[in-house]
């Protein structure tokens, strides 16, 4: 089974559940047309909590025996999440611009990590880093394109 080495630990199980919740809620918030309404905020907060659990549990998983590149990207993910929420909580000027960009990149990073994780389950170890880099790069390029394509229209509405 693909998830056998993850779900054999309580930390891995929480990590997997948080990832699934974050992927569903993150995608829903991005695809749902109306931003800023009550459902956007509620589902967005579920996404944030799931991402906090996801990133928190990532530090308890050591597939390489110690702190690795994946832990580094968990720190980046936490930073993206923080800078996506702070403007809204502290009511910065240009808060929508910051919120849109950082939260969008948070979701792109989540899906890039998912693609990297799935690919590595089916690829032999000698190709591991190549597959991780290619999968992450492709998702990031497509995500970046979509973020920029929609940024002007989204930010103008607010």
Which structural category fits the helices and strands? mainly alpha
The ordered string of helix (H) and strand (E) elements is HHHHHH
Mean pLDDT: 84
Evaluate the radius of gyration: 16 Å
- The share of residues in helices is over 70%
First and last CA, distance: 46 Å
Gross morphology: globular
Largest sheet: none
| Number of helical regions | 6
Strand elements, count? 0
Oligomer: single chain
Could you tell me the strand content as a percent range? under 5%
What are the low-pLDDT stretches, counting only 5+ consecutive residues below 50?
none
Folded structure, characterized:
The relative contact order is 0.10. This protein has helices spanning 4-7, 10-31, 38-58, 69-90, 95-122, 128-156. The chain is 80% helix and 0% strand. By secondary structure, the protein is mainly α. The N and C termini lie far apart (46 Å). The protein is globular and about 50 Å long. The model has no long low-confidence stretch (mean pLDDT 84).
Q: What's the SSE blueprint?
A:
Blueprint: H1 4-7, H2 10-31, H3 38-58, H4 69-90, H5 95-122, H6 128-156
Helix pairs in contact: 2-3, 2-5, 3-4, 4-5, 5-6
């Amino acid at each position: 089974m693909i998830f056998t080495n993850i779900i054999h630990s309580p930390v891995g199980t929480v990590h997997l559940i948080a990832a699934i919740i974050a992927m569903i809620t993150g995608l829903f918030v991005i695809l749902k047309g109306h931003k800023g309404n009550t459902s956007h905020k509620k589902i967005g907060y579920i996404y944030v909590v799931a991402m906090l659990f996801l990133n928190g549990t990532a530090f308890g998983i050591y597939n390489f025996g110690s702190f690795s590149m994946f832990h580094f990207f968990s720190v980046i993910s936490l930073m993206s999440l923080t800078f996506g929420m702070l403007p809204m909580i502290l009511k910065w000027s240009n808060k929508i611009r910051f919120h849109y960009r950082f939260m969008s990149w948070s979701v792109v990073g989540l899906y890039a990590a998912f693609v990297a994780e799935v690919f590595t389950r089916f690829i032999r170890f000698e190709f591991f880093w190549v597959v991780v880099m290619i999968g992450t790069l492709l998702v990031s390029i497509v995500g970046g394109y979509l973020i920029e394509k929609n940024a002007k229209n989204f930010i103008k509405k607010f």
